[in-house]
Here is the input.
Amino acid sequence: MNLRQLSEELGLSQTTVSRALNGYPEVNEATRQRVQAAAAAYNYRPSQRAKSLATGQSMQIGHVIPFSTQHEMVNVIFSDFIAGAGESYAKHGYDMLLSVVNDDQEMHAYSELARKGSVDGVIVHGPTRDDPRISLLQELKIPFFVHGRSTDASASYNCLDVNNKRAFQRATDFLLDLGHTRIGLINGLERMDFAQRRRAGYEAALRARGLSVDPKIMHSDEMTEPYGHSATCALLDLEDPPTAVLASSIVPALGVRRAVEERGLTVGKDVSIICFDDAISYMPNGKGEPIFTATRSSVRDAGRRCAELLIGLIQNPDQAPVAELWEAELVVGQSTGPAPQKG
Amino acid sequence: MNLRQLSEELGLSQTTVSRALNGYPEVNEATRQRVQAAAAAYNYRPSQRAKSLATGQSMQIGHVIPFSTQHEMVNVIFSDFIAGAGESYAKHGYDMLLSVVNDDQEMHAYSELARKGSVDGVIVHGPTRDDPRISLLQELKIPFFVHGRSTDASASYNCLDVNNKRAFQRATDFLLDLGHTRIGLINGLERMDFAQRRRAGYEAALRARGLSVDPKIMHSDEMTEPYGHSATCALLDLEDPPTAVLASSIVPALGVRRAVEERGLTVGKDVSIICFDDAISYMPNGKGEPIFTATRSSVRDAGRRCAELLIGLIQNPDQAPVAELWEAELVVGQSTGPAPQKG
DNA sequence: AATCACTTCCAAAGCGCTTTGGATAGACGC
DNA sequence: GCGTCTATCCAAAGCGCTTTGGAAGTGATT
Here is the structure.
């Protein structure tokens, strides 16, 4: 059943039927009722394809997901971000278009989406320092929204980020206050903007107390469980092992805990752990008292909000630029305690 | 730049340009070269919207993701399935359309996608016993593919599943062979088809050895880390606690391990653990020797294959029904050992 | 009774592509 | 030189919707 058939069935023009269904005022209320009833009876849905072509809007928002064996970072938090964004999309009648591409084709994927006109806007995930995607999207003249920030980006852009520097500065301060002076950092990949900011916060806190920054106890890699484990093993094998560890996500933090416990040490006593907790739904940080002391900010909420803001941007392109900065909360759990007294 | 403009620029008809670009034979090779060169020069991409309308194909495949606080199961394995499916889609020129909806609107979401014509086919995730989506999709006459199976489904369908029963039967046998006679089950939600099959395998193995099935040591819930933890606590609090546990995913297995270690018990010695390992990319089961003894089957591979098969179905609708059944491999890791001698 | 303003509807022109059904021209055989 | 074939190209008709620019009808106003 298409619009023409429906209008013939009703003895009305396509114009009137279209207007009746789309809530335009130029149609008698009685007629509108009749049209809506018929549409419901025949289970009529306008073809999205035709609608897109006519309106010039696809009502779809694109996400480009690069895949490779190296680069799984997106995955960890991705599903929750998507869930949040998807909620917002659904609320506004948008759908989500995912384009999974090889790492080296990411830029190309964005231009394809834009030029083919299959999306009305895109979300940029995991920005790096001076991310090239930002200027590309600006050239392509397609609305886009960055989840995170891109230090030194030449072009301007709309974004939402967590105050990563502040979060890790506070976490480090918290450990310093507990008497820890040797604190390991198990960071994400340094090319990620958020990882650089977190390290900056960590270093700033140390320097503020006159402590030196020791590269030997700073790691950076894809945030997997085994990475957390092996990095921690390396830390604990040092002559002067750290008494506390800062992990960039709950996933490597699980590996940290495994490494600590394997050695018969106790988390929160021999070794304190603080992690960044994205509040991933299936990996909550405990039920009551958190397992890990953590800097917490829900990535699902971020997804919801990014989507909301992007839709606003699409519907009102001349809007003033948006740059939201969320503060992570510091929640105290079981994984931290005072620095052990030196033997 | 659209087709008309490009054809005017070239002094050719739209027909010829279209045919040249789409590889039809009715065009001189020299002309084709000229057209392709011009298209490249102007960075021309045909509008996907117009193309869809003209061809009747959207070149998009739909996934409906229900969200709610109860029901996070999809998330755990979802991102990896998506990554795999996305690879296949990309290879064949398809995109992925995600529709995130409230739990109770899932059925509706499928009919919308089908009737609006925004997708050429859909993937069904996490089927339950006699899943109503299957008959719905059959009515809607849209190609679909089920990841998993639906026992008692009234309608016929194409699917790919892991032999869940066999996997858990083998895992249980493995534990029985090690001398364990009291084995806890930490299963997924029982309304999921895979959970029922896994339980069936577990029970079959026990009964084959004349052992009784004890509901007191069988749990079923959303597969989160805290669930694994609390279920294990409950098991270990029993008068006659199990010496081994079977977990339905690596995520609750992490909670199992936490609960075991919290009590000062040793995994693989005091308590053995086997889990189902979906080979989630960011949560690999160790690097060398697996952390957990597990029944393993890559959900990413499954995604890849499901997508491949669905595309085949779309391009050739009269094809014979497909029903692939994959055997999980049983990999032995550090989490299992002989049953402890009773004190 | 003529004018005006509204309300309600419609015919038709896109949106940018694909595809059908020729048209044209050169090659070929006789 | 004529008919036939093939290679190459084109005009135009969709695909199913939205939207522009009226037209017809209705009632109020003058």
Q: What stands out?
A: Residues 12-16, 19, 25-28, 31, 50, 52-56, 117 of chain A lie near DNA strand C (CB under 10 Å from a C1'). Chain A has a mean pLDDT of 93.
